UniProtKB/TrEMBL annotation:
The protein's Enzyme Commission number: 3.4.11.5
Enzyme class: hydrolase
Places the protein is found: Cytoplasm
Protein name (database record): Proline iminopeptidase
Organism this protein belongs to: Kineosporia succinea
Taxonomic lineage of the native organism: Bacteria, Bacillati, Actinomycetota, Actinomycetes, Kineosporiales
Predominant localisation class: cytoplasm
Domain AB hydrolase-1: 35-300
Superkingdom to which the source organism belongs: Bacteria
Length: 320
């Protein structure tokens, strides 16, 4: 089984002025003369981490990571209740990626994204297919109504009723209405009072982090208890979900055939509660040339053993 590459530090970092009052943090690691790859984190709002650098052979890859608007080290941080979210949309993020590629002098890059990062990767690649050398996609999420309803409106509670009770507990009892939970959470998360939005944010993040893996990971769940980080994470996610990612229904899968010339690997955990395998399968039907890896005994997280093995196998193969 493959393991993460050893820890590395960036050889370059910066804050890119993306316009609209946003500064986007970026970093580069590995080999500055290597094969360019951009890592797109999940969420939206999850941020990039030191461990994400380690998915790629540092001797063969020029590894570019960024914190998308409003999260991580980017500014302004959505944990601040005064932050305006109007200039934080999928299409702003796609434009940010293209600006960063241009500023860093990269002609084409591999695009690697998991969970929300897979949606952003597809949106970017479908907009700029001539700038993508390969796609590595994990835990496929395209923000269709069926996907959002599954995890945030009640059906997933049939698998995880205990953690679902905690999710409902983030809202007043009279607002725990299936079919309106994302909307009602939006009201709570964007309330300026920390006594309202912080408990809601922690409940939202705890529900998600409790279901990332087949076996519970207390280390992941503990990160959801940070009220500032969880506020940014939950606000950005909720903002995107209430707007269906600014996609037309089924857009990412419907437009996927424009990617038929791009080598693609799709990696999916069979027991992924957050983004069930049906979406990955639907994407594979639209991209029959893609390598499709359905990992047994794995959930959603990139570092589930079988998923990690498939991802590093893919990046190693593409580096050759």
């Amino acid at each position: 089984m493959r393991e993460l590459y050893p820890s590395i530090t960036p050889y370059a970092t910066g804050m890119m002025d993306a316009g609209d009052g946003h500064s986007v943090y970026w970093e580069e690691c590995g080999n500055p003369d290597g094969k360019p790859v951009v890592f797109l984190h999940g969420g939206p709002g999850g941020g990039a981490s030191e461990r994400h650098r380690r998915l790629f052979d540092p001797e063969r890859y020029r590894i570019v990571l960024l914190d998308q608007r409003g999260c991580g080290r980017s500014l302004p941080h959505a944990g601040d209740p005064q932050v305006d979210m109007s200039a934080n949309t999928t299409w702003h993020l796609v434009a940010d990626l293209e600006m960063l590629r241009t500023q860093r002098g990269i002609d084409k890059w591999q695009v690697f994204g998991g969970s929300w990062g897979s949606a952003l990767a597809l949106a970017y690649a479908e907009t700029h297919p001539d700038r993508v050398s390969e796609l590595v996609l994990r835990g496929i999420f395209t923000l269709r109504d069926s996907e959002l309803d599954w995890f945030y409106e009640g059906p997933a509670s049939n698998i995880a009723p205990d953690t679902w009770a905690g999710f409902l507990g983030g809202l007043p009892e009279n607002q725990r209405v299936p079919g309106r939970l994302v909307e009602n959470y939006g009201t709570a998360l964007f309330d300026p009072d920390p006594a309202v939005h912080q408990p809601a944010a922690v409940a939202w993040a705890t529900w998600e982090f409790s279901n990332l893996t087949v076996q519970p990971r207390p280390d992941l769940i503990a990160t959801a208890q940070d009220p500032i980080a969880s506020t940014a994470f939950a606000r950005i996610e909720n903002h995107y979900f209430r707007h269906d990612g600014w996609f037309t229904p089924g857009q990412l899968i419907a437009n996927a055939p424009v990617l038929n010339e791009i080598p693609t690997v799709i990696v999916q955990g069979r027991y992924d509660i957050c983004t069930p395998a049906t979406t990955a399968w639907d994407l594979h039907q639209a991209l029959p040339h893609a390598t499709f890896v359905l990992v047994e005994d794995a959930g959603h997280a990139y570092d589930e053993p079988g998923i990690l093995d498939a991802l590093i196998t893919a990046t190693d193969e593409f580096a050759r």
